[in-house]
Amino acid sequence: SDEKLDLNDSKWEDIHVITGALKMFFRELPEPLFTYNHFNDFVNAIKQEPRQRVSAVKDLIKQLPKPNQDTMQVLFRHLKRVVENGEKNRMTYQSIAIVFGPTLLKPEKETGNIAVHTVYQNQIVELILLELNSIFGR
């Protein structure tokens, strides 16, 4: 909505409120940031040999709609800053991937492979965080 929020208001002091809202925004999109039709492609990319994963994921991101690419770049740069402050917030690459993987990347229809999908979702998000500059440039 067009509501103006004052993030200095005491009701926003709990960081979990802000992060929960961010996660909910991405979870409630009509289609995930990593679009449904690319889910299996990203899973196949992360299954490749380690040296090929980055270029495969980068190529797939370039196939996404431009607004998705732009949003992804801003979001992942922010999440990288969160990890860089891990001494204060105790967030690691893995913990960010666990929190955001299933929210940003999911199949259109869930099959019996939920646990397997979760592993790949997390690995994809972690790879993008670790290889941010290679994938999105400086």
TrEMBL record:
Pfam families reported for this sequence: RhoGAP (PF00620)
Query: What Gene Ontology biological process does one annotation of this record name?
Result: signal transduction
Cited SUPFAM superfamilies? GTPase activation domain, GAP
In this protein, which residues make up the domain named Rho-GAP? 1-136
Q: Which UniProt keywords are given for this protein, alphabetically ordered?
A: GTPase activation
The identity of this protein, by name, is: RHG12 protein
Alphabetical list of SMART domains matching this protein: RhoGAP
Stored PROSITE patterns: RHOGAP
One GO cellular component assignment for this chain's record is: cytoplasm
GO molecular-function annotation terms? GTPase activator activity
Top-level taxonomic group: Eukaryota
What InterPro entries does its record include? Answer: Rho-GAP, Rho_GTPase_activation_prot, RhoGAP_dom
